[in-house]
Description:
31% helix, Clavaminate_syn-like, iron ion binding, oxidoreductase, iron
Amino acid sequence: MEPIYVLSDAEREQLAAVLHSVGKSPYEDYEDFSRAVGDVVARGEVPAFFADVCARIRDDRRSGAGDAHVLRNCPLDEEIPELDLDDPVADKHAKKKTFVGEAFLELFAQLVETPLLSYATRFNGDFFTDVVAINRYSGMQTGFSDSELVYHNDRTAHPVRADFISLLGMRCPDGDFVYTGFVDGRDLLAHLSEEDQLQLREAQFITPFDVFSRDNNEDLTVSEVHPILENHHSFRYLDTCTTAAPGAPESAKDALLALKNAMVRADKTRHRIRTGDLFTFANQDGLHSRDKMEINDPARARRRWLLKTYAFRDAAAAEQHADRWLDGVRGRVGD
Length: 335
Ligand SMILES: [Fe+2]
């Protein structure tokens, strides 16, 4: 996929210097960190080119022009440590002493006006998490493995779900080709009949929680009965897992089959995230996947590291969940 903007090396360094000046750890006190990034904005230190490109992305999302964007040659930390894949979170906290990547993601979220979301029961409630191949999940269907991932949205089974996901390529080995697929919900709708859409809008489907969620909270087994299609074109769906609820009518299963066909036929965007790429896309108004197109060195491919954030569509969407904030931290919810 073509980037909406490629930073020049000078622009990248200029922005990195601003981000470096934040000087706080997002892992010690997120709100303090977020305020410090907000202060950078308030002082007028954000380079105009970056404010402009964030405004373009915000406008594209609001006008419906597009829900998937790439920025290239983004600022990263000077030192990107190798993480111990037995316990990458603890290892990151121990080794990572600068937070340029995190400040970049926070600044991006503030400028596109999409407040961040975190889950208290995973990664210490951190707002900046890692897409890495955790050893104990090898081969399993979770973003924290080195597996391919079928089309899905993140936290499909969870009552509070991100509207947008942003992935920043911290280390993406050049010789291995891992693609993130994205299908826009509007392109799925175009392949679904009125009747199938009506069936998908009924609460008659279930989605089991993934292995990573179950490991972090053993009470989580299966979602409540839910519709697959919500709003205009939000899909709540994890391929090969979301299914008709027990006792659902035949028409629900027909609609599920129609959706599977629509997913095969619909146009898709595929992007290979490179080191320094920001790939940001809708989590609910579309589905995404991970395809390992060509892995030439499996050990090298397992060193891939993406820094990730979840975000709400806007302040109003975040506010709808205000009664769920844990410890008074805006955006941090329980399971
Ligand atoms: Fe995902």
